[in-house]
Automatic annotation (TrEMBL):
It comes from Prunus persica (Peach). The keyword Nucleotide-binding applies. Its EC number is 6.3.2.1. It is found in: Cytoplasm. This is Pantoate--beta-alanine ligase. The lineage of its organism: Eukaryota, Viridiplantae, Streptophyta, Embryophyta, Tracheophyta. The keyword ATP-binding applies.
Length: 319
């Protein structure tokens, strides 16, 4: 059977018209939001979406709203043509790729043209020196933000204070444009998944948010678009994250419920392998509040730097 080629839509109004037309025919629409440079982890999200909806929209958009001016927006990897080929190889394919030009350009800002060029730089991955974060003053004329105030405070929110504001805002925009019935997010970004779930609940979006399990390389490394930036040596050292998390989960299953002891196990392993720890936290799976003893389902979340690459991973502990 010939590979299914997705329709590529770049215009917001056209995307909304397509979705409404499909839903008027009784079809259900699933959305898989991505920033591109797709890998098997993204493919697993699409496979999961196929279990729940008739039609699949994959968004490919490097969101400047979640990067602070000092972060790696301009170096985020991109391969749009390669992404389309990977999507065509997915069983069942996808129906639409939503690849907007710039979701923060409203045609009214005096900086709109510069902003559009910046968006193009980010999308084609040319390392665009002109790329700016839209959190900069007067960057793109955008001034409305969505915050999930308590859930965004810890873990990644500590070291990346604008990140979840940017994520919640762009996901809200995508939900309003695509109007899906279901949206699928990876559990690798555990805090992000829970924040989107809470946002959907609190703002009464009529969307079911599904968390899809982490997909790992054969050696256990959690799949990430940033993995390509690891040197072979750094990649080998980065395995300390998943290996130590697995040891901590096993220790918990054997009765070690003191969270400090479990955190120390992981922290030591990452430091000994040359990693620079951002955080290692054991938190309640829904409230994301720190736990001292494991008495209910928790998730062990880790972020660490290897070289210039920041990696995140987690494991749920259900005992």
């Amino acid at each position: 059977m010939a590979a299914k080629e997705p329709e590529i839509i770049r215009d917001k109004d056209q995307m909304r018209r397509w979705s409404r037309a499909m839903r008027s025919q009784g079809k259900t629409v699933g959305l898989v939001p991505t920033m591109g440079y797709l890998h098997d982890g993204h493919v697993s999200l699409i496979r999961e979406a196929h279990n729940h909806t008739d039609l699949i929209v994959v968004s490919i958009y490097v969101n400047p709203g979640q990067f602070s001016p000092s972060e790696d927006l301009s170096t985020y990897p991109s391969d749009f043509h390669g992404d389309i080929q990977k999507l065509m190889a997915v069983p069942g394919g996808v129906d639409v790729v939503f690849n907007p030009h710039n979701l923060y350009d409203y045609g009214t800002s005096k900086n709109a043209n510069a902003a559009a060029r910046a968006s193009d730089d980010a999308r084609v991955g040319n390392g665009g020196n002109g790329v700016v974060s839209c959190v900069e003053e007067n960057g793109l004329g955008h001034e409305t933000w969505v915050r999930v105030e308590r859930l965004e405070k810890g873990m990644c929110g500590q070291s990346r204070p604008v990140f979840f504001r940017g994520v919640a805002t762009v996901v809200s925009k995508l939900f309003n444009i695509v109007e899906p019935d279901v949206a699928v997010f990876g559990k690798k970004d555990y805090q992000q998944w829970r924040i989107i779930q809470r946002m959907v609940r609190d703002l009464d979006f009529g969307i079911r948010v599904i968390g899809s399990e982490i997909v790992r390389e054969k050696d256990g490394l959690a799949m990430s678009s940033r993995n390509v930036r690891l040197s072979p040596e750094e990649r080998e050292k980065a395995l300390s994250i998943s290996k130590s998390l697995s040891r901590a989960r096993l220790a918990a299953a054997k009765g070690q419920t003191n969270c400090k002891e479990l955190r120390d196990l992981v922290t030591q392993a990452i430091h000994e392998s040359g990693g620079r720890l951002d955080y290692a936290e054991i938190v309640d799976q829904e409230s994301l509040e720190q736990a001292k003893e494991i008495r209910s389902p928790v998730v062990f979340c880790v972020a660490a730097w290897f070289g210039k690459v920041r990696l995140i991973d987690n494991m749920e502990i259900n005992i």
